[in-house]
Write a sequence for this structure.
């Protein structure tokens, strides 16, 4: 525990800015993964324990596509699209067989997919760490805000994540398909009885969730090292985010993700060994006072 | 009553068979396997009291397994008390912890219960990792376990530890078997099947849930004590999330609807572990495919599947 360092950081504007932005990018990546997770749970009542794997595969695909085409934009796009397709296959081939089954059966199937994909990544890309490095377009001098160093890539990442989150909210709130998705979250039988193809809808939801995780992986690739198993830590954290925010609530996920990102970045200064412990404490406290999370009553 | 005597007779028979095996084959690997199996089977069966009998899906039961290893090893290293005393003190520590943790967790429903139990476990894991002075941090608690003597028998000897583990497993299973056959066990199943109805019939649901939570924590810590003796200490891996995952896979693969399902599942899991890691470096790939075959092929645990196939009652599998 190092409270002096924490106090020193909070009172110094440069440290404050640096830690806040690094907390925000962690939060934004978490939000994108958690938004897909919470969407899938809200509509399908499936807890996708393989969601971290989507993120990992998205990052690896983005890395390879970037190396192949030289364009970071195409790399991220490939990660997102690749995972949208993967999401549909995953839903059709495996998850559709356990709708309505006990959560432990879903856990078992997802865990099997996690094990298989981690090893497939080892076979295809090798067991070593990869560092993608900053794409050329962002190799420009950093901005200085109140004495703190802020790489332009961070700003781009935060804006893109916010745009995606906003787009998702608009899609769900204003469009016809969004209306159908919200209705299906309430009562899938009724939606089905009205002649809407819920099978297609479920695949679509998995495609959107997979795409969000894949995009997050692609966006994370320049600032995180790529390793088989990188999906797990983000999975646990995005579960904390969805549970704190209330499962099924996208707005709740955004707030919880930002809070968790800030706890992480300031926690590493004040409590270097206990940063993860802080996140679990936050989760337990919130669930004690609000057993269904901050915004648990909202659906989608 | 006859049922109890039958169970005890089967238990004694199992111990006698296990005691005889080392005289037939000198395989140390077999003894290692039985010791690990005993520890994990106690742990998995205790989890099944929650999952299979009460319908409480805990993801963080490893908290009590790991706390069992750490509290037992620390009591043996730091205090001068004898092994049986440390054993009993470990059970008490876990029971008290389980009352506190359970009081918070059992208010929550389904998936929130699952995640808050996991958070509790990971919080304890973080405490152990960061409290380096007491627990050795991520290096684990080294230095071995002194005075490993019970009633004049030295558990430092592998054969003795092997018999000890087998006896503890059989006694633990017999007690848990008895618990689920009492009227308390009936209350558990009623809460699983219809919580509102159980409440209407006068069962105080939270009290029953908390009681079974504490009981299962105590039996999980017994598994932890056996593991601590086996590895001569305690390590953060023993309280990290995969340990809870192992117990969940053991009960789902063995069958949640049969009392011995978790024990069978543990044997399957450990055998797979030993066989697959010897054959290939791609352990996850092989294990993942086998799990998928199990989950999608049988759609229930092995023992539940066999019970149903033999024309018995539907074992109440979870899928």
């Amino acid at each position: 525990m190092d409270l002096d360092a924490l106090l020193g950081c909070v009172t110094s504007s440069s440290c404050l800015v640096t830690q806040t932005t690094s907390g925000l990018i962690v939060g934004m990546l978490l939000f994108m993964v958690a938004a897909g997770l919470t969407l899938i749970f809200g509509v399908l009542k499936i807890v996708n324990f393989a969601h971290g794997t989507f993120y990992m595969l998205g990052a690896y695909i983005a890395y390879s596509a970037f190396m192949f085409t030289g364009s970071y934009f195409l790399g991220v796009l490939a990660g997102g699209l690749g995972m949208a397709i993967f999401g549909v296959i995953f839903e059709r081939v495996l998850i559709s067989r356990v709708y309505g089954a006990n959560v432990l059966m879903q856990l078992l199937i997802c865990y099997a997919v996690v094990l298989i994909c981690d090893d497939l990544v080892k076979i295809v890309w090798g067991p070593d760490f990869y560092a993608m490095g900053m794409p050329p377009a962002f190799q420009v001098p950093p901005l200085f805000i109140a004495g703190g160093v802020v790489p332009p890539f961070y700003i781009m990442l935060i804006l893109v994540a916010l745009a995606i989150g906003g787009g998702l909210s608009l899609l769900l709130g204003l469009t016809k398909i969004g209306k159908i998705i919200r209705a299906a979250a309430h009562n899938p039988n009724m939606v089905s009885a009205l002649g809407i193809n819920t099978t297609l809808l479920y695949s679509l939801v998995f495609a959107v969730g997979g795409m969000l995780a894949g995009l997050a992986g692609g966006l994370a690739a320049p600032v995180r090292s790529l390793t088989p198993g990188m999906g797990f830590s983000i999975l646990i954290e995005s579960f904390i985010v969805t549970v704190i925010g209330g499962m099924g609530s996208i707005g709740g996920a955004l707030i919880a993700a930002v809070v968790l990102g800030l706890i992480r970045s300031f926690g590493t200064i004040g409590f270097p060994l206990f940063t993860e412990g802080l996140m679990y404490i936050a989760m337990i406290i919130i669930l004690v006072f609000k057993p269904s999370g901050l915004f648990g009553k909202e659906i989608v | 009553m006859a049922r109890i005597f039958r169970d005890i007779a089967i238990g004694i028979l199992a111990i006698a068979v296990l005691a005889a095996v080392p005289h037939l084959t000198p395989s140390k690997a077999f003894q290692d396997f039985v010791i690990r199996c005993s520890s994990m089977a106690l742990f998995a069966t205790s989890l099944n009291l929650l999952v299979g009998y009460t319908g409480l899906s805990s993801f963080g039961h490893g908290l009590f397994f790991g706390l069992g290893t750490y509290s037992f090893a620390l009591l043996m290293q730091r205090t001068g008390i004898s092994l049986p005393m440390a054993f009993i003190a470990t059970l008490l520590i876990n029971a008290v912890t389980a009352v506190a943790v359970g009081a918070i967790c059992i208010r929550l429903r389904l998936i929130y219960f699952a995640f808050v139990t996991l958070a509790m476990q990971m919080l304890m894991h973080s405490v152990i990792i960061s409290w380096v002075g007491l627990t050795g941090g991520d290096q684990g608690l080294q230095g071995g376990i002194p005075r490993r003597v019970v009633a004049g028998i030295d558990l430092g000897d592998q054969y003795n530890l092997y018999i000890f583990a087998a006896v503890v497993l059989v006694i633990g299973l017999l007690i848990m078997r008895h618990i689920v056959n009492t009227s308390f066990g009936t209350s558990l199943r009623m809460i699983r099947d219809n919580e509102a109805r159980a409440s209407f019939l006068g069962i105080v649901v939270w009290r029953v849930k908390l009681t079974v939570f504490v009981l299962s924590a105590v039996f999980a810590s017994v598994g932890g004590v056996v593991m601590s003796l086996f590895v001569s200490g305690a390590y953060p891996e023993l309280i990290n999330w995969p340990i809870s995952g192992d117990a969940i896979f053991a009960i789902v693969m063995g069958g949640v609807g049969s009392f011995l399902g978790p024990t069978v599942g543990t044997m399957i899991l450990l055998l797979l572990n030993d066989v697959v890691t010897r054959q290939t470096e791609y352990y996850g790939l092989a294990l993942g495919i086998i799990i998928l075959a199990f989950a999608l092929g049988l759609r229930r645990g092995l023992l539940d599947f066999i019970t149903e196939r033999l024309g018995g009652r539907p074992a109440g599998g979870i899928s």
Notes: Chain B has a mean pLDDT of 88. The longest strand of chain B covers residues 149-150.
